[in-house]
């Protein structure tokens, strides 16, 4: 079963924010991605709104509801009251909780489930009671005990942080090691009924090995590498290339 592709629009929004102008359009590029067969759209509305603005969220919600009712909206963020209220207002199909400090340049680690269990449990319950699926950002370090704790929060899925794997683009031997670690973590999650997503620094080049190792991978959310390719191939053709890399026949 191919992994579903969710296109992250953060980088599009970062480009838009360079000027006080409405282009490139976040919803316009999101529409092209969905028209090309992406399964959904992902955004990470960071507290400083450096790229995705809170005002983008209802526009993306409306795009999916009005034009692509079978697509999914995935919102990522740290569970502050502000972020949780944004989730409850915009009702994404999935919320991906990440342990990011507002000062972080990007997401670069998963949850410490041993330390954060008591924080995550009520948040997961609140979001699920609001009808949203919950995924937790997790390091692909093969720690089965941590995965069991992720399950204990009540979350539906984990999202494997694939940044270290993405960074092995010029070290094939290290890529094999990272795939093994990610696979072990995924297997531990799958064995106890947790769904498995993945994201961060994924590309057309590194996706096939990940999808092959984790055949039950539910979804990959991709923004930086996909946007870079879209500058070269256009968004529609890039989405088709990434869908093929996810195992889809396109
Ligand atoms: C959670 C994750 O790995 C990414 O989706 C994250 O949203 C990237 O954030 P930036 O686009 O702000 O780097
Ligand atoms: N959760 C990962 C994501 O949404 C996009 O990450 P990246 O492809 O921008 O690194």
Automatic annotation (TrEMBL):
Site features described as Transition state stabilizer, chain residue numbers: 159
Cellular compartment(s): Cytoplasm
EC number(s) given by UniProt: 2.6.99.2
Gene Ontology CC terms: cytosol
Source domain of life: Bacteria
GO process terms (BP): pyridoxine biosynthetic process
Pathway, per record: Cofactor biosynthesis; pyridoxine 5'-phosphate biosynthesis; pyridoxine 5'-phosphate from D-erythrose 4-phosphate: step 5/5
Keyword S-adenosyl-L-methionine (UniProt): no
CDD domains per the UniProt record, alphabetical: PNPsynthase (cd00003)
EC supergroup of this enzyme: transferase
GO MF: pyridoxine 5'-phosphate synthase activity
Binding site for 3-amino-2-oxopropyl phosphate: 8, 19, 201, 223-224
Binding site for 1-deoxy-D-xylulose 5-phosphate: 46, 51, 106
Matches recorded under SUPFAM superfamilies: Pyridoxine 5'-phosphate synthase
Function, in words: Catalyzes the complicated ring closure reaction between the two acyclic compounds 1-deoxy-D-xylulose-5-phosphate (DXP) and 3-amino-2-oxopropyl phosphate (1-amino-acetone-3-phosphate or AAP) to form pyridoxine 5'-phosphate (PNP) and inorganic phosphate.
Self-association state and partner proteins as the record states: Homooctamer; tetramer of dimers.
Protein name: Pyridoxine 5'-phosphate synthase
Organism in which the protein naturally occurs: Gellertiella hungarica
């Amino acid at each position: 079963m191919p992994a579903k592709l969710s296109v992250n629009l953060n980088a599009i929004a970062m480009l838009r924010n360079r000027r006080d102008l409405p282009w490139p359009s976040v919803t316009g590029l999101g529409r092209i991605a969905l028209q090309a067969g992406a399964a959904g759209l992902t955004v990470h509305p960071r507290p400083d709104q450096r790229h995705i603005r809170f005002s983008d969220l209802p526009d993306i919600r409306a795009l999916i509801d009005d034009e692509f009712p079978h697509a999914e909206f995935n919102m990522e963020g740290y569970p502050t009251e502000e972020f949780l209220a944004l989730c409850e207002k915009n009702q994404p199909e999935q919320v991906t909780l990440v342990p990011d400090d507002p000062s972080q340049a990007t997401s670069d680690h998963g949850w410490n489930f041993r330390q954060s269990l008591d924080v995550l449990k009520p948040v997961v319950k609140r979001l699920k009671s609001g009808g949203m699926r919950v995924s937790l950002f997790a390091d692909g370090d093969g720690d089965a005990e941590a995965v069991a704790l992720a399950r204990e929060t009540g979350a539906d899925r984990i999202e494997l942080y694939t940044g270290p794997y993405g960074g092995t683009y010029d070290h094939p031997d290290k890529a094999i090691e990272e795939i093994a670690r990610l696979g072990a973590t995924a297997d531990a999650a799958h064995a106890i009924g947790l769904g498995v997503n993945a994201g961060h620094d994924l590309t057309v080049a590194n996706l096939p090995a990940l999808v092959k190792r984790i055949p039950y991978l539910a979804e990959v959310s991709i923004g930086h590498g996909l946007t870079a390719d879209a500058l070269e191939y256009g968004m529609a053709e890039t989405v088709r290339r990434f869908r093929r890399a996810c195992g889809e026949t396109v």
